[in-house]
Amino acid sequence: MDEYIIDVLNDGEKQQLKTYANTVYQALDSMLPFQGITKIYKIVRSKDKESWNVRNANLKYLREMRDIINDEKLIQNLLKDTK
After folding, report:
1. Whole-prediction pTM value?
2. 82 has pLDDT over 70
C-alpha cells in the first residue's frame, strides 16, 4: 500500500489530503464518500512523486456509478487489479 497526496477542493477550500491505497484508482475512489470534495486536481504517489492530473474527473458521475454498483467487494477488486 502506498501513500498518496491528493489536491482537492473541499467545502470551497483548496486542501491537500493524504490517503493510502494500492493504486491511483483506489486513491481517487477513497475521496468519493466525502461530499464536500467537489474537485480533485492532482494525485501524487509519495514514494516516487509520480503524479496524475485528474482535473477532468467527473466526481458526480463516479459517485452515481458507485451507488449503482453497490457491491463494495467488487469495486475494490476491480480497482485493485487496475494498473
Report:
1. 0.84
2. no
